[in-house]
Input
Amino acid sequence: MERERFGKHAVLFEPLLHTRPAFYLAVAILVLVFLWGAVAYIYQFTTGLGATGLNLPIPWGVYIINFIFFIAIGFGGTLTSAILRIFNAQWRTPITRAAELITVCGVIFGTINVVFALAKPERLLNLFFYMRPRSPLIWDVTAIGSYLVLSLIYLYLPMIPDIARLRDTFPRRKRFYRFLALGWTGSEKQKKLLERVIGLLAVLMIPTAVAVHSVLAWIFSMTIRPMWHSTIFGPYFIMGAVFSGIGALIVVMAILRRLLHLEDYLKPLHFNNMGILLLVMSIAWLYFTVAEYLTVFYGNEHSEMVVFWAKLTGEFAPHFWAQVLTCFVIPFALLISRRTRTIAGTVIAGISVVIGMWLERYLILIPTLGRPMLPYPQPSYTPNWIEWSVMAACVAAIALIFVIFAKFFPLVSVWEIEEEEAHAAAGGHQEAVAPAKGEALADAS
Amino acid sequence: MAQLTRRAFLKLAAATAAAGGLYKLGMIRLDSLAAPEAALPGPVADRRLLGTCHLCAGGCGLSGRIVDGRLIKLDGNPFHPNNQGKLCPKGQAGQQVLYDPDRLKGPMRRVEGGWQQVSWDEALSEIADALRGLRASGHPERLAFLHDGKRGPTSDLIARFCRAFGTPNDLHAPRHSADGTGLAHWVSQGWNDHAAYDWENTDYFLCFGGAFLEAWQPLTRQLRAYARMRRGRPGRRARIVQIEPRASVTATKADEWIPIRPGTEGALALGIAHVIIREGLYDADFVAEHVFGFDDWSDQAGQQHMGFRSLVLRDYSPGQVAQITGVPAETIRRLAREFAAARPAAVAAGDVGGYTNSLYSQWAIHALNALVGSIDAPGGVLRQVEPPLAPWPEVVPDEIAARGLAQPRVDGAGGPGAPLAEHAPHRRTEEPEAPWPVDVLFLYHSNPLYDDPPGVGWAERLANTRLVVSFSPYLDETSALADLLLPDCTYLEKWFLEPLEPSLGYPAVGLGRPLVEPLYDTRNTGDVLIQLARALGDPIAAAFPWPHFVAALEERVKGLYQSGRGLPTAESWEAFWAEFQSRAVWYDPQYEFGQWERVLATPSGRFELASPQLKARLEAVGLRVTDQDLLPHFVPPAFEGEEAAYPFTLRTFKPITYAERWNGNIPWLQEIYGLHVQERWDSWVELNPETAHELGIRDGERVRVESVAGSIELRARLWPGTPPDVVSIPLGHGRAAGGRWSEGFGANPNALLAALADPLSGELATQSTRVRIVKL
Amino acid sequence: MPRWGMVIDLDKCTACQACSVACMAENNAPLVGRDESLHNRAITWHYVLPEVEEGDYPYFHARFLPRPCFHCAEPPCVKVCPVGATYVDEEGLVLVNYDRCIGCKYCVTSCPYGVRYVNWRHYHWPEPMEQYLNPEVPLRPEGVVEKCTFCIHRLRRAQEEAAAQGRQLTDAELVLLPACNQACPASARYFGDLDDPESTVSRLARNPRAFRVLEDLGTEPCVYYLAEEKN
Output
């Protein structure tokens, strides 16, 4: 009967209709992890930031790494939903909503990590009462705030037609969906307006995202610390965000494809395209890294070389070379040849990149802080259980958001797929995504 | 909504960008909103009280800032000539000594499993009973009093008590910086004491291991003098050459560091003397007028003996000395010429204590001063004038006491084992079957279980002593084994006098006084001794006719008033006493040079480079002496531990943050403990970087240091000022008691020391142990 | 307006560290204890730095640098504070408003000299140690950043007293004003007005031996050092 309600894309509404036992188990585990992290943070809040492994000269650690890391992951969403939209890459349509949700989650949890990193979080509002625009952190507040608002809108607006459909097909939740549907009737006028606004937002998102990652980078490069004070940081972080964003996106796509049976929508073609993008970014990563390190090495400036050697051969060599392996060697090996650029291949590459880019942030932060220019007694930083627990809680929370979102809204933008099919049938556009096996899949519930 | 044309969009975008840009630029205007200044609490009403520090033997004057009866800052007493308003970091940290949360709060008695509070009356009556018992049994000599022997009325009071009671066992515990110096001066100039130095006018300081900027002699005066030597005299900058096996902070600040094989400093001094004599660079007039033994001499029996010149020219050429010391011959020549050229404002001095040849080494070093005529000259070596403190009436011991005083001391000082020593409580004199013959032991300002090598056997001694009483203000390793604790007040809470240790040459006496009311039920040990004496009744009580210690001190201070010299002066005794209290120091800043009878108080009335009185003393205890034994000469130092098994010589040292004989429960000092290696709250062992590399030991790695006497574990640190075959460990950690900030971390290098001693002076040879390093 | 600065003569300095202890005593340095200190959480507004360079044994070079906050004229820390908790006052002092600091520690990471410290926990003084606290210096709450203030409380008190007498502070009154200067046994430290060309600090800052730390970073530190000599 649902199939009749939802037509040939019924599989996209499966999660809203049926809840398997695995769902409850997953939610239980995620909630537990989240609560554990919450307890860890409460302990930190009551004891002081000293409950973590932070110290001097390394007062920034896992929280700030995650701040950058999560927001950067979100760039994948912006890339897919906004940038690729502008370039009219139709193949991205099944991915956009999930991607945008990644962005929103990334921005939220990235930002929340800054609050965790504060030694006096109860004074958080001082950031607004006494804002000093000269500080790069305030640039962050501004840019990320704008980015968050835009991303939320950009997530929400394209959901409206689907919400309206749910309003009309889910009597039990009618009031909920009606509230959110904002009186959508599907008229030509409304459609045109929606297209326009989405188009405008897509355009606005790009400079906003660029601004966000630039100011994230400028937190570091606006100081005069060795290997921070570098002009390459702005572009480097943008590139890094695109890179890790795509990697994360690939992983999320693969998971959703498996869990929600989206094989007809997320095809090897998508992974192939994203894989190519990932490869291009991996090469770009290599270029930026070489440019940065070669410049430092050639300049041979003392305090920079201390950090340089600490990374290449010293205390941080394991992290550095692991990063090279995960950010370049593995992705390149897997993605250069079509034979290995399968779904499995790109997913492995994606996971590798995500790990590698976390290491990248670690390598930006810790070696420079750990090699102050004036003599310091034995700097060292080891994150402890609180920081890891909080990080796990963030990941669990993101997963939880996805899981619950999927219960209320389709993770794939159904109306956009249907529109494309309509366009394709009318003739002219690039690949349409036609579920040849749609009918057969409907049996698998 | 109206259609959004491309143009409109572009306008909007441009406007947004412009606004953003202006916003960012406009920040400059927003920044001008000044942040309200962090509220300052505002000034408070305070008063200043002056007193004296006791964290080392320096005796610097203190100035305490008191607010509502609380000591909120310590600075130096501006009136005290030694420190003139300044304090070393230990003195600055005195507040944490006073407000130490782990201090004893009153008398305690040891009970099963811990301590029990007792009243002073109870404790004192128990001790009085025990003491009466000793007198009654006719063995007053079975009382021993182990204390720091710090010059001043407290030590005098203790000596008085021992004399009146009838025990010869007034034992001075050795300071770690005890070196052969006192006896070297006795041998050469006739007085057993450290010397005073006119640093402020010195042009050349040949320093043999003296930790000039960290310890050694009154530190704060040395710190002040250093600045003056460097930049206080326009056009004149003193040259400091530091000769020692390990580069201390002093060596690092010196103009030159000369590494030398441990224990061979005396040979180097003689090598320098050789060059000075051979090249005729010595002060011939001074030698002719004031030196004995330079040339060959004959004794009273008419026998000929070798003189200094003959010995030095024969045995200590630069080549020979280079072999012994490891210092290149050319360096020896250069130093000799530099030193002599700076005369008479040239000083050779230092701290070569801790070897088995310390006396002769120190004598050799001091001899250089005689050669260049810097004895009692501006910029040279002086003899400290004692302040004219009036003596207390003499004690005439009664019969029981006289018999007790005639007994031999338990440490055998002055006997064949330590013929020149006046005190040697660390010596193991017990026969295997007979335990240490002490029934009652008083401990004041001494912690031998921490300070002495384990081979001395203090734990056994204390176990075999019936009644051990400690006056320590806190629990330490030794007082933890006591039976009764009678905590002294800290120096910030009590009255005492602190005559200046040899330093300035002219006399000074600091007044210690309470800067705050005593925090707890503690008593000035001086008061306690008087109370104890009273409890014992006559004749002992008669020797202590004062109601309290301050009255006893006043009697001594009267002498300063009566001398009519120095500052303050006053018209009446009452006015003097009031003025003395308000300035907390008396001093007489005139040093008369050339008082040769006082300065050269030897039998010959000269500086003795050959010592007939040494001959007499040694022969009196049955030792045979050769000509060489009567001259400064190089005695190869003995080390404990075979070189093959223990390839490194261990040096222990006192960083400036180490307060000897205090419990170290001082967080401020722990925080800055080892400046040159940025160590805090821990011990470490310094290795030469090459050596460490060969052993495969990285900076910061934990290692074990082993000697024949024991082993300890601590972190290895690489210090380039370490010779390849030397390792160095600082003192001050590895405590088993003392408080929450000093217990249970680091390691005590004294646990590694062999119980060796200089055979003549009897002093502990703390730098004579060989060790090996084991990677963990 | 005066611009406060300091000169430290390394040729007179004995590396005794009395300055560091005096600062901790005067300014109510939080007592972090051994565990926290070994975890690099000690709060030492003033600290003496050893700069050691190995050479061919027995030659090596070591220099000891007493290091307060340099109160830079171009402070990188002030630029980055998002709430203006750290600021420069009119007399050039770089200060922290403890009531406003949110503990983001951006100022800590941007200071190239490492002079800024964090209250990682609520540090307290066990009884009876709170009795030695200086009532003229505010206690800092957990979570905020703190650092050397050039003993601003002493400065304000002296300025107020002078103003009450209708005069300015003299150079002589200023030279030993901060606790570190006052404590220095070698009298190696000087404090005063760098904008007064005749003040002691200005004259010494013009001395050929004078240098500043990491000058080429452009921070314009207001603490000058006079280089050590060897003869």
About this structure: DSSP finds eight helices and ten strands in chain C. The longest strand of chain C covers residues 47-54.
